[in-house]
Design goal:
7-stranded antiparallel sheet; 2 helices
Length: 339
């Protein structure tokens, strides 16, 4: 099941520190969080470390004991250093480490558990996937590393678990030395459900935004005439344009731009991302997918913060057909929310 997606498509362009840090946590060393040209489309994240190594850590996602994480990665010059850490809250369970020859190692702390035969290439995008199974802190854990769709390292019955909890629930992206480091197209899934329960392979994440009114427009617009215009910016403008509601049951749905998706491409899932706050008290927000003229409710979530934060809901299948989304179905669908 897909737990989490990140394509760095919804934070605007240039320096994106302000919106990005509503979904990630940066350390004090990072001097720049910027977008750059995406690996295939859209944007990627460029980490500017300043004078030394730096990192950003994702907000937590559901605990994953057996999981698969994939991401695009590029760095100008190969060096020794961490690429990504797999964490239980604030504690690192294990990490993926880059060596100067471009091979990749799995580390527990500073101890090398295993190293790939294949290697990444400087200044070239690679797609790296890490599969893991955390069982206990006694050495019965498993790891697989794939480079550009090919399995390169298989570790069985190894000790990569640091805490007493057999899971991870966030990741940390590191700069490699003191140079620009690029990430894109990140997915995280676990082994549950009928879909997306193993490696997804080289994956691409495309961002789309509202571009027209939908079937329901019950919320009140601020800053623009039409509701969709208050929610269409990729760089959130906070209180300049937004929609709001005080009435339980109010719905807003929007049409979206049509992404360019090559034929025969499998759509693994759709993440509906919300940028929201609640000034009075915690309230429930229900995601809505409208397809085939029918509104389908997603899993409710609580908006608890009086400051702006990101929330998301993932639809792995078209709720009307109970099958993979097709490009035409996505293009004709509406997405929104109910108070």
């Amino acid at each position: 099941m897909l737990n989490w997606l990140e394509g760095f498509e919804t934070y605007g362009s240039g320096n994106i520190s302000s919106p990005l840090l509503k979904r990630w946590i940066g350390d004090s060393v990072i001097s720049g969080l910027d977008t750059s040209t995406g690996r295939s489309v859209g944007s990627s994240l460029r980490l500017d470390p300043g004078s030394s190594t730096g990192y950003i850590t994702s907000w937590t996602f559901p605990n994953v004991a057996t999981g698969y994480i994939g991401f695009g990665y590029k760095v100008g010059t190969l060096d020794d250093g961490k690429i990504i850490s797999f964490n239980d809250d604030l504690d690192e369970q294990f990490s993926l480490y880059c060596n100067t020859d471009g091979t990749l190692s799995i580390l527990k702390g500073i101890s090398v558990v295993g190293t790939t035969i294949g290697n990444i290439v400087a200044n070239t995008w690679s797609y790296i996937e890490v599969g893991f199974q955390l069982v206990c802190d006694c050495g019965n854990n498993n790891v697989i590393v794939r480079l550009d769709g090919e399995t390169d390292l298989v570790l069985e019955n190894v000790n990569i678990q640091t805490t007493e909890n057999s899971w991870i629930n966030n990741i940390t992206l590191h700069t490699l030395g003191s140079q620009y480091t690029y990430f894109d197209d990140i997915y995280c899934c676990d082994d549950t459900g009928e879909r997306n329960n193993s490696f997804l392979g080289d994956s691409k994440i495309v961002g789309i935004a509202p571009n027209a009114i939908g079937n329901c427009n019950n919320w009140t617009p601020v800053g623009e005439t039409d509701n969709w215009e208050c929610t269409d910016e990729t760089d959130p403008d906070n209180t300049t344009t937004y929609v709001y509601s005080n009435n339980v049951g109010d719905k807003d749905t929007y049409n979206f731009t049509n992404p360019t998706i090559p034929s025969l491409t499998t759509i693994k899932g759709i993440e509906i991302r919300y940028y929201a706050r609640d000034l009075v008290s915690p309230h429930l927000l229900t995601p809505i997918v409208r397809t085939g003229g029918i509104d389908y409710n997603g899993t409710k979530f609580t908006v608890t913060e009086d400051d702006w934060h990101y929330y998301h809901n993932i639809s792995e299948e078209n709720p009307l057909t109970l099958d993979d989304w097709t490009s035409s179905e996505l293009n004709s669908a509406e997405f929104g929310m109910k108070y």
